């Protein structure tokens, strides 16, 4: 049986795994799930509620970093992690920093532009799933909105803190870009993949495989516009244009 990825279409954590599988030219099936509605199926499969989850050779791998590490172990060519120990440690350190705290902050900023509007949330969360799923989500979302907000830490205080840290995250990214245009060494590595994936929550480059339904909320458009002049913003777009391969998803 081919590998099967259970994922959220719009998530930057899930994008890391899609990109790694595509980079390795690893044919795989994908099952997209609706946030919130995913819980029973994922809990039955994995014993917990989070995605991505990859079913591989009868095993279930959970979490983007664990999945990337196993993909690299099983298919080391082309490599994602540098062979040099110092460069590998640097790649892992960047991956960790952008996974935590950057990724949660960007996720709460992204969702803060949707979460108070039930219709917009339904349009986003069920994009690609059909009208019946959208109606069901729109019906139940007012009741589960507090849980969504709590799970993402999308309360006003944490959103304000994330807004205050956002420019600093771009500062950090820009300080790490080397003369080669890559974050570690002279070639594309997991550091570039992971950091670019995380930053898609705000940047949303043209190469992201699941475009947002249009029109996007004005608050999100304004946020993107306020950062589009940043070298880090353009770096994400360039990494996607140059190094995001075509999908290896099976029909």
Précis, in short:
With 251 residues, the protein is α+β, with helices and mostly antiparallel strands. Helix content is 59%, strand content 7%. It has two domains: 3-74, Glutaredoxin, CATH 3.40.30; 85-243, Glutathione S-transferase Yfyf (Class Pi), Chain A, domain 2 (Up-down Bundle), CATH 1.20.1050.
Oligomeric state as shown: single chain
Number of strands: 4
Structural class: alpha+beta
Report strand %.
5-15%
What does this structure look like?
This protein is an alpha+beta fold and 251 residues long. It folds into two domains: 3-74, Glutaredoxin, CATH 3.40.30; 85-243, Glutathione S-transferase Yfyf (Class Pi), Chain A, domain 2, CATH 1.20.1050. The protein has helices spanning 12-23, 39-46, 64-74, 85-112, 118-125, 131-152, 156-176, 190-203, 218-227, 231-243; strands spanning 3-7, 28-32, 53-56, 59-62. A four-stranded mixed beta sheet has the order 2-1-3-4, sandwiched between helices. Strand 3 (53-56) and strand 4 form a beta hairpin. Helix 1 runs parallel beside helix 3 (64-74), helix 1 (12-23) crosses helix 8 (190-203) and helix 4 runs parallel beside helix 8 (190-203). The chain is globular and about 50 Å long. The model has no long low-confidence stretch (mean pLDDT 96).
What attributes characterize this protein structure?
251 residues, single chain, 4-stranded mixed β-sheet, 10 helices
